[in-house]
Specification:
Elements: E1 2-3, E2 6-9, E3 13-16, E4 19-22, E5 26-29, E6 32-33, H1 35-40, E7 59-63, E8 76-77, E9 83-86, E10 92-93, E11 109-110, E12 113-114, E13 121-125, E14 154-159, E15 164-173, E16 196-200, E17 209-215, E18 223-229, E19 244-251, E20 254-262, E21 268-274, E22 278-279, E23 287-295, E24 300-303, E25 307-309, E26 311-312, E27 324-328, E28 331-335, E29 344-352, E30 361-365, E31 369-372, E32 380-389, E33 401-404, E34 418-419, E35 431-437, E36 441-449, E37 454-463, E38 466-472, E39 485-492, E40 497-504
Parallel strand pairs: 22-26
Antiparallel strand pairs: 1-6, 2-5, 3-4, 7-16, 8-9, 9-10, 11-12, 13-14, 14-15, 15-16, 17-18, 18-21, 19-20, 19-23, 23-24, 23-25, 27-28, 28-31, 29-30, 29-32, 32-33, 34-35, 35-38, 36-37, 36-39, 39-40
């Protein structure tokens, strides 16, 4: 039994029988401590502790014999401050701050004392002894550990700038190529270096964290706000801090770059991202995103966990305008101006004999007209219509139009052309204009303001003889509401013209 004072850096508090550890802060064991039991798990404690020999959080690193130590692919990048590699027949060194392994004292200084490679680290026989007096300066080479028989020893590294401990369990160590270019040769370490393998405890979690994805309100979909928490080294004082964040979306099986956010040392960031598809109704059409913290100086990237979010089309199409009804041949034809919305899908037409639409009938059409054959003579029918888009957003209802289904006797051929006074007059928001046609022919009904400027064309078509009516909803040719005031409406045929005055109230 050995007596140790041991400090660990972990993340949540968990208890496993007699084994307990604390994640997210240092914790201390004091008193009698069975090192063998701790390391090798004779009481199954090894399975509970995140140490290099066991547990899901261990990281395995291997560098092949004679691999090029100048290649970052052969570096074990532990943090923005520390990466480990070794040259030909040499010990470990930190390529982020060293060009090669330095034996013995180095220019690097910690608390007034110089230490050898790898710089920015302190080493000891582990695990993670917190007594600095027992920490030796660096990784002195393979021979420091006494040969292959001591590969089972745990060593611990303390990263000074990170203020974090890492446990190492070395599994293999090979010399360089023996060409004389390494240790014992000319000393320049130019040949591909020796290999080494080990387990180690995991690094500090530097990844950014997506906290939420929210739909952008009051838009036509396709966009979300992606909110994420910064990487831990996104601070202005950090010498190896993050340059920016790359936002990516998963399209099928490919990650697509959407844009970047500059790292400014802020605690959190928001990026407006595009989605692949909008959610419709109760169907959640999600897109998958991730955030990558990028450091160009030392070519480091830290990936967030993936996060799903969806967008919604919140904007309905415009309200239909220019509703008109024609009673003819025992049927009512209702027409209106076509929708200009890009995501328009269909119209929802409602009909009733009650102006309050208490017992309505509903029809659906993608055309801007509807022929109602289910009508009876001598009745007043009321109609209104609204637009629906691809996301099932409904516009407001149009103004209500009405039509009187006269009998055939009432529809006798007029003996003259005549433009009747509109009703009601004054009006708001709609009025009905009746007119009589003695003959078939091209017919124009248009509206002008008091200055004689054209406002709206209600009819410009070939119309059969008979008594007709049309409704004006106080909009111009563009579907825009016109201001209150005096307006004039004119009936023009091939051989007849007549004008009447009407008043639109506020």
């Amino acid at each position: 039994m050995l007596k140790y004072l041991i400090s660990f850096v972990l993340f949540i508090s968990i208890s496993f029988g007699d084994c307990e550890y604390m994640y997210g802060q240092y914790y201390t064991f004091a008193g009698n401590f069975d090192f063998e039991e701790y390391v090798f798990g004779e009481d199954n404690c090894c399975d509970d502790y995140p140490i290099p020999m066991c547990g899901d959080d261990r990281i395995y690193f291997e560098k092949e014999d004679y691999a090029d130590y100048n290649d970052p692919d052969n570096w074990d990048i532990i943090s923005p401050y520390v990466a480990l590699t070794r040259g030909d027949r040499r010990g470990l060194y930190n390529p982020l701050v060293e060009s090669e392994y330095v034996y013995g004292a180095t220019p690097w200084d910690y608390q007034g004392t110089s230490y050898p490679s790898p710089q920015n680290t302190l080493w000891n026989f582990g695990p993670r002894l917190g007594d600095y007096s027992n920490i030796f300066g660096g990784w002195f080479s393979w021979g420091y550990f006494g040969g292959p028989e001591n590969l089972t020893l745990i060593v611990s590294m303390y990263s000074v700038e990170d203020d974090a401990y890492y446990d190492f369990y070395v599994t293999s160590w090979t010399s360089g190529d023996g060409s004389g270019n390494g240790w014992g040769g000319d000393g320049n370490g130019s040949s591909p270096g020796g290999g080494f393998s080990y387990y180690r405890s995991g690094p500090i979690d530097y990844k950014p964290t997506i906290t939420s994805i929210e739909d952008v309100p009051n838009d036509q979909g396709g966009r979300v706000y992606l909110n994420f928490r910064r990487c831990e080294i996104d601070v202005n004082s950090h010498p190896y801090g993050i340059n920016n964040y790359s936002i990516q979306r998963l399209d099928d099986s490919t990650w697509v770059d959407l844009g970047t956010v500059n790292a400014l040392g802020e605690p959190s960031y928001t990026y407006e991202a595009t989605t692949l598809i909008d959610s419709i109704g109760d169907v959640n059409q999600s897109s998958t995103f991730r955030v990558i913290a990028v450091n160009y100086n030392i070519n480091l990237t830290f990936f967030s966990e993936e996060y799903n979010g969806h967008s919604v089309d919140n904007v309905p199409p415009g309200v239909p305008s220019g509703l008109n009804t024609v009673w003819e041949d025992s049927q009512v034809t209702i027409s209106w101006n076509p929708s200009t919305a890009e995501d328009f899908q269909y119209y929802n037409l409602e009909k009733d004999t009650d102006p309050e639409f208490s017992n309505l009938q509903t029809f659906y059409t993608s055309d801007n007209f509807f022929v109602d054959q289910d009508v009876n003579e001598g009745m007043i029918y009321y109609y209104r219509v609204r637009s629906v888009d691809d996301a099932e957003n409904y516009s407001d209802y149009s103004d209500v139009v009405q039509t009187l289904t006269l009998s055939n006797e009432d529809l006798s051929i007029p003996n003259r052309f005549y433009l009747h006074q509109n009703y009601p007059n004054p009006f708001n928001p709609t009025t009905v204009i009746n007119y009589d046609l003695q003959n078939d022919g091209q017919t124009l009904i248009e509206i002008m303001d008091v200055r004689g400027n054209h406002v709206s064309t209600l009819i410009n078509d070939y119309v059969q003889m008979g008594s007709r009516s049309i409704t004006w909803d106080a909009t111009n040719d563009y579907g825009e509401r016109v201001p209150a005031g005096i307006y004039f409406y004119t009936l023009k045929t091939n051989n007849y013209i007549q004008t009447q005055k009407m008043v639109l109230l506020k």
